[in-house]
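Practice record 12: protein with nickel (II) ion.
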Amino acid sequence: MALLSILEYPDKRLRTLASPVLENNDEIQKLISNMFETMYEAPGVGLAATQVNIHKRIITIDTSDNQKSPLVLINPEFEVIDSDSDNLQEGCLSIPGFYETLQRPKHIKVTALDKNFKGQQFEATGLLAVCIQHEIDHLNGILYVDHISRLKRSRIKSKLEKLHKQQ
Ligand code: NI
């Protein structure tokens, strides 16, 4: 396994639309292992392949506090069951150090392939529902800052640009 480097906002590569994964192979399984290692190390509760500059529709998630609930979603899609929001705070490994409260549907139905490319369908609520929507956004080149005000977004952008220059 290996740690992958995570792209940071406003890196333009985060705007890439990821392609569906058509077949399971060693390369995909290695990527999934490395994504989990990278996500746990960060630490974070979700990672999209887009964030490690691999533009395939793969997400790793673990919202447990003991790394015991790894979830792999390949080619994920969702339908809204309840569009009301829990107004949960979100962070992002590609936007380190910032958190914003977003409105997202609190109850969704998810369809995806699992790690073994078996079809799965399940309902998600709470943090898991938010996390899945956040990561699917990444696969579509969308970041959570796109859902907040332009003023807040430009403030985050200039602070991160300043940090990147110092590195
Ligand atoms: Ni993110």
